[in-house]
Design a protein that fits this description.
The protein is of the alpha+beta class and 143 residues long. The protein has 6 helices and 3 strands; from the N terminus they run αβββααααα. A hairpin with a 3-residue loop joins strand 1 and strand 2.
Amino acid sequence: MSGARPKWRDVRRFYENEGFDRFSSDHDYYDKTFPGGETAGTRISRGVDGETLAPGMWHNVWRRQLRLMSEEDFWRGVRGESVAYNIPASPTAPELLPEYLRYYLATIEHLDDNAIARTPKDEAIERYQRHLAREIRPPTTDT
């Protein structure tokens, strides 16, 4: 169906199938927030469900407002199939350091919580292993 312009009722169906939140006032507003905080959505006037979207408006709706990878993704969504959004993947949360490394960095290296949170795991392990491998000298006695 690529190339065919939808009616506003098709856009509403897409929003409903894709689980967009709906808010109604003077228009119907549809919005969806993705895991990384990115959003997609638009407003639809009342009484226009039977109208076909104008070519320029249609391109803006599927590409900029719905943020889809392709026009065909819109029709997949209308049919209730999975769609591909043109939204960057959310960054993965940094891996938390194991407790023993956090303890070492805080008590031996004297790093504060912010510095510990910024320390990559491989660096923390390297610092910890250097500490364990250091040469231990017996105490000297003065007589």
